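User: Second chain of the day. Same drill as before.
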Amino acid sequence: MTFPVHEVQASLSPASAGRRQLIRSLPALGLWGVATPWALAQGAYPNRPLRVIVPQPPGGGFDFVARALADRLSRQIGQSVVVENKTGSGTLIGTEAAAKADPDGYTLLMGSVSNIALNMGLYNNLSYDSLRDFEPVGMAVSYSYTLMARNDLPFNSLKDVVAYAKANPGKLTYASAGNGSGQHVLAAALWHLAGVNVVHVPYRGAQAAYLDLLGGRVDVFFDLSSTARGQVEAGKVKPLALSGAERNPMHPNVPTILESGVAQLDLESWFGYFVPSKTPAEVQERLRTELARVIAAPELQETFRKAGGKPLSLSTEQTRAMVKRDVERWTKLVRDIGISAG
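Assistant: Same format as last time:
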């Protein structure tokens, strides 16, 4: 709470005048929040390493964005930012761990549509509420998904795949990075809306799914365009469709799901850092300020663009509105379709 100067002067002894004058001068010196008595008592934040929980294994989109941000944030704040891959049950185990962490600003979560929005519809007894228990502190980038087919699959478009699946129910398979992952929900929604039966084959992370896709043991796989890019450009898989509302400049000849005409469906997955909502407001704001500088760096934005991403530049209120919109939209869609994490 802030009091007018005239209300507190009477309680200051003459011996306090020097200290009072020093405190008044701190903002002009750029030292406010560093040398104040409160800061000296509490220890300036951050004064030890931070950790970022990534609820997916190394090698996928979660991991890529988390490490890109962590490396640059570490340099920005002068403390180590350690990425911890905490996997299991799709994205559930790691996200639950972040929700239960001490709300002190030293544990962050790599959040995305999959664990922040989709899980709300996938689980009936979720131990956390995304809108109540988490606060976004830095939204960095969004990516579409690319639907890929094994090279020897005799189809070159999503429309052809759906036509075959209608004539041959249960004959085609699709991989995902695990039950409840973004790859699972997006594909399940597509097949449901297209009215076909394609068999789900869940894996523990995207890397394991790629092994079987490249080996011809599974037919198709949706993955974030950033991590799909290498396989597509190497000619190891066939790109069939993109999940965004518009084509991706990285693959200008690949149509969107909407363009294919098989379903009215689009999805772009955003990625950013979140903290438990009870984290002190001043700590949240410090993180937002530092992450805004990191995310605005041209070099990082170019890294995201080269990987097929769309760098984001959103205010705190815009970020909260986007998260709320997608939580509500996808919770309803997942429940209406009847997709489960099991």
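Residues 316-337 form the longest helix (22 residues).

User: Great, on to the next one.
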